[in-house]
């Protein structure tokens, strides 16, 4: 039997029933990687010897009567997570030989749940791109079209899942880094509520692995089905024990509804700052039609929706203010001079980016206060709706573009070019207020490329968009393996 594309849920059932061993699953996954990954380049740091040993241990544990959520299931891990004995480089050449001393907290949780880690997946340099390439490990290709990117920064994980290299993966997201690769590769991903999932050990090379509270950034699960996302989120969720001194168990509220016809959904397909490409718009409409056909209440407009333009500017400022905090003082002062020269009427996202990088602490406090008003707006909206359906980016996967200056790159939307970084506005819609968002497949473009949408849910109610994702999967289908 071909096991590589089965869900984690089905693999767990087969392992429990004795239909297959973890050693067999792991050997088959490794054989597939060795056969197919030369063309994809998703697995940048294989760990096959330790994976085989972990699989043997899992089989012995099961023979003793043990059962854990992921016992014996092969998985991958984004390169940016520390794994003891393997390099963590974030694609940065000066750190190509850096070896962390201990596992990231999420790697520890995977192992405690019984998962077999096959290796690490590729990323862009510093995790700072919507693609996945770097000087150390090269370029990861989209399994649907090798001339296109799988997305970033969790692009290696998405490409691995779409290629059948393991049943699950873990990634991270500050600018769509879980959701965009899922959209580009036709898989599922979930950006958890901000702070729900401990992030210790998902740090740049040589940085201490401390239990910090990040602004905007989260870590989260990737899978080939919605139910597998929930399975993996349950393993990952919970505070860092170093912070609270307690176990990581956490109880999330149940999904608001179990049936499609009970959901109240707001559907968005237009953004005031960037057009939505026809292929993505069609995916949004496909989901909206399926919801309506299933009896859900579907609305296209609401006065309760926070202002999308202001949200995009605020997100851009907060995002890039975080990046500039580590710049040398001289570079920061140059940015302040450039920002001071901007016209007061320049409300472009490029101007917001520059102003954000030049933020003072006072500026950040003011922006954070405006963020709290947006959070309050979302709370009011989610009193009337259960989820918001919207794009993840304006287009399907685009061709590789390795221009080192991201501000010089352009994104082609139905034949018209727009600034490359402007495509982040949809990802930022959920990121800025810290809301959970589930990326789901929504069909394919006329060119045969995957198209996804995101389901944004209420804060700390992650199970609501996850359940809606599961119901949509039953209604319109989900992951399909590339030919």
UniProtKB/TrEMBL annotation:
SUPFAM superfamilies: Amidase signature (AS) enzymes (SSF75304). It is an enzyme of class 3 (hydrolase). Its EC number is 3.5.1.4. Residues 24-464 form the Amidase domain. Transmembrane segments: none annotated. GO terms for molecular function: amidase activity. Keywords: Hydrolase. This is Amidase.
């Amino acid at each position: 039997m071909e096991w590589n594309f089965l869900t984690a849920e089905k693999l767990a059932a087969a392992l429990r029933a004795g239909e297959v061993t973890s050693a067999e699953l792991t050997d088959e996954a490794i054989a597939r990687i060795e056969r197919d990954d030369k063309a994809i380049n998703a697995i940048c740091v294989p760990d096959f010897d330790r994976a085989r040993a972990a699989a043997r241990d899992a089989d012995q544990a099961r023979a003793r009567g043990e059962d854990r959520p992921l016992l014996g299931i092969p998985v991958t891990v984004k390169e940016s997570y520390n794994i003891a004995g393997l390099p963590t480089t974030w694609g940065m050449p000066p750190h190509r030989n850096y070896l962390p001393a201990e596992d990231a907290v999420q790697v520890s949780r995977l192992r405690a749940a019984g998962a077999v880690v096959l290796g690490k997946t590729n990323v862009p340099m510093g995790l700072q791109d919507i693609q996945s390439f770097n000087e150390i490990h090269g370029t990861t290709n989209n399994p649907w079209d090798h001339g296109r990117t799988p997305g970033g920064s969790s692009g290696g994980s998405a490409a691995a899942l779409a290629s059948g290299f393991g049943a699950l993966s873990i990634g991270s997201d500050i600018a769509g880094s879980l959701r965009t690769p899922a959209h580009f590769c036709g898989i599922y991903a979930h950006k958890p509520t901000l702070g729900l999932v401990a992030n210790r050990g998902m740090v740049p090379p040589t940085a201490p692995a401390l239990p910090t509270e990040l602004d905007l950034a989260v870590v989260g699960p990737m899978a080939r089905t919605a139910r597998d996302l929930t399975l993996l989120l349950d393993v990952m969720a919970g505070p860092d024990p170093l912070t609270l001194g307690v176990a990581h168990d956490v109880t999330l509220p149940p999904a608001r509804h179990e049936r499609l016809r009970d959901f109240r959904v707001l559907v968005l397909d237009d953004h005031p700052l960037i057009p939505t490409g026809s292929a993505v718009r069609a995916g949004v409409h496909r989901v909206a039609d399926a919801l309506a056909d299933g009896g859900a209440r579907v609305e296209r407009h609401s006065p309760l929706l926070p202002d999308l333009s202001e949200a995009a500017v605020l997100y851009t400022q907060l995002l890039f203010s975080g990046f500039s905090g580590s710049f040398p003082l001289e570079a920061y002062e140059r940015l302040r001079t450039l920002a001071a020269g901007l016209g007061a009427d320049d409300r472009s996202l490029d101007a917001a980016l520059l102003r954000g990088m030049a933020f003072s602490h006072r500026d950040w406090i003011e922006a954070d206060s405006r963020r709290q008003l947006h959070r309050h707006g979302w709370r009011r909206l989610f009193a009337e709706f259960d989820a918001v359906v919207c794009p993840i980016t304006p287009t399907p996967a685009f061709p590789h573009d390795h221009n080192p200056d991201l501000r010089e790159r352009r994104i082609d939307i139905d034949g018209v070019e727009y600034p490359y970084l402007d495509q982040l506005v949809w990802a930022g819609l959920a990121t800025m207020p810290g809301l959970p968002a589930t990326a789901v497949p929504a069909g394919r473009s006329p060119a045969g490329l995957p198209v996804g949408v995101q389901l944004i849910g209420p804060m700390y109610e992650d199970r609501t968009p996850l359940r809606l994702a599961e119901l949509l999967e039953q209604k319109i289908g989900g992951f399909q393996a590339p030919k």
